[in-house]
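Data card: per-record layout.
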Amino acid sequence: MFAQNAHNQQKQRVSMSFAPEITNKLKKPFNEHDMQIVYKSDRKLSNLLGSAKDKIPKLQKSGIYTIKCGDCNRKYCGQTKRTIDERYKEHMQCVRLNQPNKSAVATHILIDGHVNITKDNVSLLRQVHDQRQLDAYEAFYIQKNTNALNLDFGNVQSSLFSRIN
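The structure for this 165-residue chain is written out next.
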């Protein structure tokens, strides 16, 4: 989508939802770079009516997840291509088989003695459809978490992670 500007060059259009406190501030910088903001509405009939499909429970999805310790409130952030429920069971199997070297969650339970980690403590942080993005999202959430149980900072290191809230 392009519009003609005064210099007979094409001006690129950028579509975004209207949020006056943000979009009004972006208008001038975008114009300086020959970009025009066009607004779209999130108020669509389909959004108002909802979906007739059954929702997939969060633990049946894949992506980036967290497991919170109920004893100390520290959190483990991880990724999985399988369901989060399946990955949680693997962490618990490491506990049952006394394999702390295979899971940071198992290490926390077996070595620190914190046993208040149940399926209720598991949640989906971000569903990730593109598996190539899993490492970056996992590293971002690990580095963002100041109270992490993780034994490393993930497979992607970037100083940009500290600048994103």
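Known properties of this structure: Helices lie at 20-32, 45-49, 84-96, 104-112, 134-144. The beta strands are 2-4, 10-17, 35-40, 63-68, 75-80, 122-127.

See the next section for split statistics.
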